[in-house]
């Protein structure tokens, strides 16, 4: 029997303007993109990308 995951679909958000928050430490760099209200739209870190 074929088991399929049932999860939430990602919703694409259209944000015309945003703010980039960058936190650089000795061990990692975090980048967060938020809308003008401060709600997080996307984030990434150097550690999660393999650097």
Keywords:
51 residues, mainly beta, 3 strands
Structure description:
It is a single chain. Helices cover about 0% and strands about 35% of the residues. With about 50 residues, it is mainly beta. It has a three-stranded antiparallel beta sheet with strand order 1-2-3, with no helix packed on it. It is flat, with a radius of gyration of 15 Å. The N and C termini lie far apart (about 40 Å). The relative contact order is 0.22. Pfam families: Ribosomal_S11. InterPro entries: Ribosomal_uS11, Ribosomal_uS11_sf. Belongs to the universal ribosomal protein uS11 family.
| Distance separating the two termini | 40 Å
Derived from helix and strand composition plus strand pairing, the structural class reads mainly beta
In total, the number of strands is 3
Rounded average pLDDT = 87
> Helix-strand pattern, N to C?
EEE
Looking at how many chains there are and whether they match, the oligomeric state comes to single chain
Taking pLDDT < 50 over at least 5 consecutive residues as the criterion, the unreliable ranges are: none
**Gyration radius from CA atoms, angstroms:** 15 Å
Largest sheet: 3 strands, antiparallel
Annotation field: number of helices: 0
From the spread of the alpha carbons, the general shape counts as flat
Strand order of the largest sheet: 1-2-3
State the helicity in percent bands. Answer: under 10%
Strand content: 35-45%
Quick synopsis:
Keywords: Ribonucleoprotein, Ribosomal protein. Helices cover about 0% and strands about 35% of the residues.
